[in-house]
Amino acid sequence: MLKKIDLYIIRKFLGTFFLSIALIILIVIAFDISEKIDDFIERQAPLSAIIFEYYLNFIPYFVNLFSPLFTFIAVVYFTSRMAANTEIVAILTCGISYWRMLRPFILSAIVLALLNFWLSNFLIPPANKKRLAFEEQYVKTIQKTRGRNIHIQLEPGKFAFVETFSLEEQTGYRFTLETIDFHTGLHSKLHADVIQWDSLSESWNLQRCLIRTFEDGHETLQRIASVDTTINLTPDDFRIDNYMMELMNFVQLRDFIKREKIKGSESIVFYEVEQYKRTAFPFATLILTLIGAALSSRKVKGGTGLHLGIGLSLSFGFILFMQISTTFAVKGSFPPLLAVWIPNIVFLTIALYAIYKTPK
Predict the structure, then answer these.
(1) How crowded is residue 73: how many other Cβ atoms within 10 Å of its Cβ?
(2) Domain ranges of the chain
(3) 125: how many CB neighbours lie within 10 A of its CB?
(4) In sequence order, which residues have a C-beta less than 8 Å from that of residue 203 and are 6 or more positions away?
(5) Which of 142, 206, 245, 336 is at 20 to 30 A from 353, Cα to Cα?
(6) Strand pairing category for 218-229 and 203-215
(7) 107-162 pLDDT, tens per residue?
């Protein structure tokens, strides 16, 4: 059961966290308004859409983004204040062990970690759909594709190639579709000068087609001026990776990664890094809480300022470590799972060592 001292620490912890995160969100919103106000006025964005479609869906994204950092800052700030007021000494002299005192810290961190997991995996993706739809309509943004000369495996034995694709027109040029039997070789090859997406029927219109079929050593040619067909491909498959990841919840991202592996996508590592980050970052909240509590529970000469300085250095060190390790995964051959979790493993070791040494 929770004691009064537990409730006191939980209230201090969560109160400091939510106050600090609210202040930084207000600052971020103020900067964002100053940056986009010209677009809002030029495109006549309604005030209700700005508030409810954009900023209401803008807030969860930045709360989740700053959550681990401000969890650490909140722990360092209020714990060092408790140490400066000799509250921690009073708690320990009452017969409460240091490990028992950490219980409300851990409970609060678990609450924030679960909140972080829920935001990143279930609330933010649908919120991003509304936010990005608003930006496409009222803010000057440029949609980007994967680039030129796009190769995609649609399913085992079926490969597509598009030289260029325009997201705005939903049209591709110089399209090729190959069907390969892994025992007998190339079965058919379709060339189309233009491939255009029909959003109503959710099918593709192929123009100026040449179909080559290979059977029993014989080749058959067929020319078609225009034909409608459905294949395992949509315009969203040509969008940049970050755009797609922002719109998927936990289940959708997992299923999408499975489909991309079948297609042989070269960008699969981006999605895997994002998938592992969505579980590693909530766990980082707990680790940073333990480090912050161990770091700030001793009364030192520099007081709160010294604790905050060391805390900020460690938190930015963690973020930098995460960026470096994930870059090795994206740009090199480092396993994505290991790249994302190495910072947690290293800082968990630091946390356990700090907790072990602090009572002494």
Answers:
(1) 22
(2) 4-140+268-357, 150-238
(3) 18
(4) 228, 229, 230
(5) 336
(6) antiparallel
(7) 999 999 999 999 999 999 999 889 888 988 888 655 555 556 777 878 888 888 89
Q: List the beta bridge partners of residue 194.
A: 173, 207
DSSP string, 194-222: EEEEETTTTEEEEEEEEEEEEETTEEEEE
| CATH architecture entry for 150-238 | Roll (2.30)
Per-residue tokens: 96: 């409460």
Map residue 102 onto helix, strand or coil. coil
Report which DSSP code applies to 169: T
* 83-101 mean pLDDT: 88
Do residues 173 and 194 make contact, with C-beta atoms less than 8 angstroms apart?
Answer: yes
Coil, strand or helix: which one is 233? Answer: coil
Mean pLDDT over each residue of the chain, to the nearest integer: 86
Rounded CA separation 2/114 (Å) = 20
Q: What percent of the chain has pLDDT over 70?
A: 93
Residue 155: both structure tokens together: 């399913």
The Cα 289–Cα 269 span in angstroms is 30
Q: What is the DSSP letter of 187?
A: E
Give pLDDT tens digits for 279-305.
Answer: 998 999 999 899 889 888 877 666 667
Residue 95: pLDDT over 70: yes
Q: Give the tokens for residue 147.
A: 């680039």
pLDDT of residue 148: 65
What gap in Å lies between CA 4 and CA 140, rounded to an integer? 53
Neighbours of 249 (CB within 10 A): 15
Whats the size of the chain, residue-wise? 360
| Residue 278 pLDDT greater than 80, yes or no | yes
What's the chain's Rg over C-alpha atoms? 27
Q: How confident is the model at residue 102 (pLDDT cuts 50, 70, 90)?
A: very high
Report whether 105 contacts 14 (CB < 8 A): no
Sign of CA dihedral 237, 239, 245, 247: negative
